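Module 6 notes. Inverse folding takes a fixed backbone as the condition and produces residue identities as the prediction. Think of it as a translation problem where the source language is geometry and the target language is the twenty amino acids. Below is one complete input and output pair. Work through it position by position during the lab.
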């Protein structure tokens, strides 16, 4: 029997997608659409409007008008705080509906829904947290430095119109990581969700009106990178681009932003290492946690998945044994069934990419401990690859250097602390890292030496009040907390003479 998900459309209330421009839902001007096929079955799930140049122009100009007339930034801080808190509550109220839409978008199973990276609750928390900054971020009053009878002040003001471009793998969290600080700062936004995860984003945007966000403050254009994304990042009225996705697209955005010097925030993936020492609190737990980041839920399709396990030779075999046990526990299937623990790869292009890297790993001499092939049988129509562990990996191999974005773990042995750090930092990426040890001195020492934006000691997580982003080619800027709020503002200096009249 072949898996089918078409009946789930009606269960979750999925409807074909439209564009939202200045408060009005409508099709693309050209009538163009894009059909989304489900990665678990290959079935056509729904159609999305493909925004062309004129649609994107209208959306950006709507956001520009909304910004310039102050319909959001000019609202009292207390009202904006209440609106974002109301919106967070609405997200929680509609969590089951939204999780169902995500399952039809990208195949992330409902069993994984409570996990932070794909959680509606995580998105709601981000809006609650950033709402708290609205009435707290201010400037300074400074004493004159060179003399003179004047007052020097600084202000933080919203950067303007933001293009928020989302990936498909974490639409809830990454939508919130961009929109929450942007709206808190007083910006207006044009959202472009990934064509592989649009339906849940459209429903989240629909709820903004119920929270009291004025028309035009948030607009949505849907479609692929070409033409929709390209038209958005090159539009001259966009002040800032916030993007999460591939390095190639991130570099294109930087180049495209040069003509108008747009502000840019980029999170561009990683090849995160986990360092496991013999004194780890629990070798088995470290192995299962690491393997879990490349199998559970997203099947390794996460920017911060710890896909390189650097393991001390004394515990190397124990680690691999526990990781293999974890790999054997992963189940695929209907994302609406509780027994399903992991998703398919998002499309056939990604399937070919992952299988190609697995093949190169074998050719370059790495040893396959388990997995390495597609799932056949009833799931043969889906983009499923069995959880794969490579041992005897050298850090120069493709599977150790390239972002696989699939359920593949490369295990690399080491003997000394310095060797482990050298291997960990020998990468073009620098997003996250993990460290398992009970030695507090080592933990602090290595946390400082590892070139990564976030280092987890005996565990790893992302939280809305903490800055998240990467070193090197993992991106520019940070999302989360005060650093994110400030990234959506400009700093202004005002000099005012003191006296009865301004002279």
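Target side of the pair, the amino acids:
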């Amino acid at each position: 029997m072949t898996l089918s998900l078409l009946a789930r459309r009606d269960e979750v209330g999925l409807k074909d997608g439209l564009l939202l421009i200045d408060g009005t839902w409508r099709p693309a001007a050209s009538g163009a659409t894009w059909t989304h096929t489900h990665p678990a079955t290959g079935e056509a799930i729904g159609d999305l409007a493909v925004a062309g140049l004129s649609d994107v122009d209208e959306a950006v100009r709507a956001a520009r008008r909304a910004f310039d007339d102050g319909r959001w930034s000019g609202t009292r801080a207390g009202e904006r705080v209440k609106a974002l808190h109301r919106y967070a509550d609405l997200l929680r109220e509609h969590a089951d509906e939204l999780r169902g839409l995500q399952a039809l978008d990208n195949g992330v199973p409902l069993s994984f829904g409570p996990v932070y990276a794909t959680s509606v609750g995580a998105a709601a928390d981000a809006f609650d947290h950033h709402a708290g900054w609205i009435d707290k971020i201010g400037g300074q009053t400074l004493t004159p430095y060179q003399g003179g009878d004047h007052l020097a002040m600084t202000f933080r003001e919203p950067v303007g119109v933001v293009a928020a471009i989302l990936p498909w793998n974490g639409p809830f969290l990454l939508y919130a990581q961009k929109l929450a600080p942007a709206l808190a700062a007083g910006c207006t936004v044009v959202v472009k969700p990934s064509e592989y995860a649009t339906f849940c984003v459209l429903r989240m945007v629909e709820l903004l009106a119920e929270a009291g966000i004025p028309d035009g403050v948030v607009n949505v254009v849907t479609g692929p990178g070409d033409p929709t994304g390209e038209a958005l990042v090159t539009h001259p009225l966009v002040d800032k681009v916030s993007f999460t996705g591939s390095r190639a697209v991130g570099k294109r955005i930087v180049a495209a932003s040069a003509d108008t010097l747009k502000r840019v925030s980029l999170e561009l993936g990683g090849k995160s290492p986990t360092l496991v020492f013999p004194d780890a609190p629990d070798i088995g737990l470290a192995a299962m946690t690491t393997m879990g980041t490349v199998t559970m839920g997203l099947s390794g399709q996460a920017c911060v998945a710890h896909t390189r396990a650097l393991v001390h030779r004394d515990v190397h075999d124990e680690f691999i044994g526990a990781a293999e046990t974890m790999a054997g526990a992963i189940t695929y299937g209907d994302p609406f069934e509780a027994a399903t623990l992991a998703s398919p790869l998002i499309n056939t292009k990604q399937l070919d990419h992952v299988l190609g890297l697995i093949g190169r790993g074998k050719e370059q001499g790495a040893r396959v401990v388990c997995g390495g092939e597609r799932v056949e049988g009833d799931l043969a129509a889906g983009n499923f690859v069995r959880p794969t562990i490579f041992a005897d990996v050298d850090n120069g191999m493709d599977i150790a250097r390239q972002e696989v974005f699939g359920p593949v773990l490369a295990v690399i042995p080491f003997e000394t602390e310095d060797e482990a750090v050298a291997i960990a930092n020998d990468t073009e990426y620098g997003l996250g890292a993990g460290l398992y040890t009970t030695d507090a001195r080592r933990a602090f020492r290595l946390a400082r030496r590892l070139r990564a934006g976030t280092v987890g000691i005996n565990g790893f997580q992302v939280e809305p009040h903490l800055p998240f982003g990467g070193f090197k080619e993992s991106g520019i800027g940070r999302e989360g907390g005060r650093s994110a709020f400030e990234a959506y503002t400009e700093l202004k200096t005002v000099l005012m003479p003191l006296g009865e009249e301004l002279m």
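Reference fact for the lab report: The radius of gyration is 24 Å.
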